Structures are given as C-alpha cells and as structure tokens.
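User: Predict the full complex structure for these chains.
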Amino acid sequence: MRQQFQQDLHSISDQLVEMTRLASSAMVRATTALLDADVHLAESVIESDKAIDAARETLDTLAVDLLARQAPVASDLRMVVTAMRVSADLERMGDLARHVAKVARLRYPDSAVPPECRATIQEMGHVAESLVTKVGSIIADQDLDAARQLEADDDVMDALHRDLYSQLLDGKWQHGTEAAVDLTLLGRYYERYGDHAVSVALRVIYLVTGEYESLDRALEHDGREE
Amino acid sequence: MRQQFQQDLHSISDQLVEMTRLASSAMVRATTALLDADVHLAESVIESDKAIDAARETLDTLAVDLLARQAPVASDLRMVVTAMRVSADLERMGDLARHVAKVARLRYPDSAVPPECRATIQEMGHVAESLVTKVGSIIADQDLDAARQLEADDDVMDALHRDLYSQLLDGKWQHGTEAAVDLTLLGRYYERYGDHAVSVALRVIYLVTGEYESLDRALEHDGREE
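Assistant: Here is the predicted structure of the two-chain assembly.
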C-alpha cells in the first residue's frame, strides 16, 4: 500500500513536469507566431491547449482517487493537495499562451507587435521559457535554492513589462489605439505567466519546508508592480 | 464523527458564502472609487483584500484538516475538494477588485474613466455585483437552476466588455494611450471577475450532479469572446 502510494506520487510529479513542458512549448510557439505573424503556428498553439487541459484533468482525477483510496495524512496529504494546486497554475499558464496565440491570429496577416516593441516581446518570451523550465526542475528535484531564486528571476519579467508600458506611454506612440490595446493585453499575459511560475515555486517551498509564509506569498504574488 | 463532519461541511459552506460577500463588497466599492476618483475608498478596498486572502487560508486549512481527520470518500470528498477550488476563485475575484482599486488610486485626483465610458463601467460593476450575489445563493442552496443560468448572466458582462473595446477602437478615441491602457486592463478585470463567478457555478453543478462536462467547462471558461 505504501509502495503503491509512493509510485502514485512519482507518477503525479512526472505528470506535473510534463505539464511544464507543454506550457513551455505553448508559450515559445505563441511568441514565434506573434512575432512572425504565423497564423498556422498560432492555430496549433490554440489547438494544443486542449492537451494541457486534459493533462490537468487526468492529474486531478488521479489525485482525488489517491485521497479516496489511501487517505494520506501529514506531508503525504500536503503533497497531493499541492499537486492539485500546481496543476491549476500550469493549466492557467497554457491558457495564457493560448491568449497570446489568439492575438497573433486576430491581427494576421499583420503582426500585432510594432517594430520597436519586438525586442521586448521576444525577451518576455525567453524569460517565460526560462521560468517554466526552472519550474520543471524545481518540481522534479524539489530544489529549494532554485525555488527561492525564482521570484528574483521573475523580476526580469516585471521589468520587461514596465518597459513595454513605458513604450506605450512615453508620448511618442504612433501605432494607434488598437495596437496599444493589443500590447497592454500581451504584456499582462506574459506577466501573469511569470506570476504563476513563481506561485508554483512558492508552493514547492511550502511543500518541502512547511513554511506557511511561502504559501501566503504564493497567494499574494499577483500584481506586485502595479 | 459523521455529525462532526456535516457540521464542518456546513461551516465551510458558510465561509464560502461569506467570501462571496467580501468579494462583492470589494468590487462594488472599487467601482465607486474608480468612477468618483475616491482615493480613500480605493485604499480601503486594497487594504481589505487581506481579509479575503485570510478567509481563503482559514478555509483551506479547515479543508485539509478535514481530509486528514475524516478521510472522506465519494461525494463527501468531492465536496471538500470543490470547496478548495471555489475558495481559490473567490480569492481571485477579490484580487481583481483590488486591481480595479489600484487603477483608481494611480490616476487620482483624475478619474481613469472618460465620460463616455462611465455608463459601461458602471454597468459592469452592477453585473459583477449581481453575479457574485447569485454565486452566494448558489453555494448556500446548491441551486442548480441558478447555477445553469449564470453562464447566460455572464454573457451580459462579455457584451459590456465588447462595448468597452468598441469605444476604444471606433477611431474616435480622444483620450490618449494612457487612458486606453487603463480601460483595456479594467475591462479585462471585470470580465475575469465574471469568468470566476461562472467557474464557481459550474463547480457547484459538478458537485451536485457529478457531471464532468461542467467541470470541463469550468476549466475552459476563460476567454470565450476573444
């Protein structure tokens, strides 16, 4: 029974890591679709979000089944509950990549991103990829140092988000209101993607250490820069 | 033991209903702060979001404690797991009200909302209040009819969201890029607030009926109009 439980926990952990791969691939491809005005790639990101939703459903079913069959307590229970919350964060990251892809599709054959904002958006895509890749390792290895570092890593995303808004608001914006609306939403999608990555890291810290403070910060994370 | 469990479930349900009241009050006050450029009211909304976060933490602690002590199965287990997810939705709705209040504070002593958008924002505030009030009844009474109706109720919010974007994008916008950025974010905050309300309703349907389709739709709900 105990051995079966450990196997199930490993399986849940593996599935969470697989979800980080899907969420990473989605945001990388969405960013390319956006910058290259590639409508087929955008469609493929939108379509593949179903796989992330299905992964979450599979994982949550397994977790609830585990609660029912094994009635875990203490740290085992904490692990299962945390896994369900982490799967919600990762599924949401997939949604945000899908939103980026939808902006790309909406503006095709144009690109939604004016030339002077391309570098910032590209960098936001890179940071998003880096954050979610680290999250994969943090889940797989329960690496506390990397988890504690992730908030600082996400500061780079917040700085890029501020840069983007500065470009919109410096008084020299010449691309009209529609492009401003698109860029506002895109900035928010990347920033929220980073927030969810940090939220996962803080949940893993809570899982390993039992530090409630981390959990508080996971709940509080959104919107620090506003 | 069984009687204690039923009492605990009632207590969880009461606390969720209390969270809907807090989330409602927050969005009502945030909307007033926004339209009246009332910085003190905005500050009070931002400050009171801590109470919603604390309510979620209390509720989640009780839920995990219940899982550990009582090891519920079947519909009892589903009830506890659903309560944890609903508390996450309601906590997020509080965050979104806080975001609205932060826009109000940022633009004080001006109002972030130009005259021709006031009616739309005011109506979004009313719809938000109506949705979350219905969610409170849906949780308290497990009212399936009201829950099934809530998606249609939220269509009104989505239509207002489209109206707002039409005002931004009809080519006659004369309030500059900063106001356009503010209105884009505000529209998104109200729309997401409505999405989370619908998500709660669908979770209650799943809870009562066990219809997986509702749960799928709860996961899928975001961004239908994009």
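Residues 86 and 200 of chain A are 6 Å apart (CA to CA).
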